[in-house]
Amino acid sequence: MRPMDPFFPKKYYARKKFFKIFGGEMKIYDENRSNLLFYVKQKAFRIKEDISIYGDESKNTELLRIRTKSIFDIAGTYDVSDSVKNEQVGALRRKAWASFARDTWLILDKSGKEIATLKEDSMLKALLRRFLLGALFPQTFSITMDGKEVGELRQTFNPFVPQYTVDFSMDTENKLDRRLGIAAVVILQVVEGKQDG
Fold it and tell me: Phi-psi region for residue 90, left (φ > 0), alpha (ψ -120 to 50) or beta?
């Protein structure tokens, strides 16, 4: 088991705050939606994306940090670092051209090697969302690693607030670093929020 796995469960629920004037906020709860696991703060007035993930709303302990590499990065690469250990965890990179029709992300390890793929459920459903049904047709993403599905991020029906139920229970061998799983759902909420706004 990885050292921080106990703090990053296999099932949880993530919800972005509906209205926030300066910077975005998200809360990540356990699967029962009763206990707050993480508090996410997106810093305001930044040219490059800068997101902190804390243990609670006091913001005393930053656990993870997500930052974009460059304002000129068209694809969108988000570096993920462990704030407690002061080390790079990996990154998520959006496949820009592929994502016009169907959202697709690459999950990279700390050396920049592709280790997994995060992909919207189907091309047909993706096109229906973009051109007909929009927020009325929630997204589902699967994370595959070595040809096997290790996680699912399912957007709940809410036209106003990005919300996801997250399930990594199929990752029985703990292949995917759970810190990257947390980063994935946070990044999706940030990106979807910008697209919907």
Answer: left
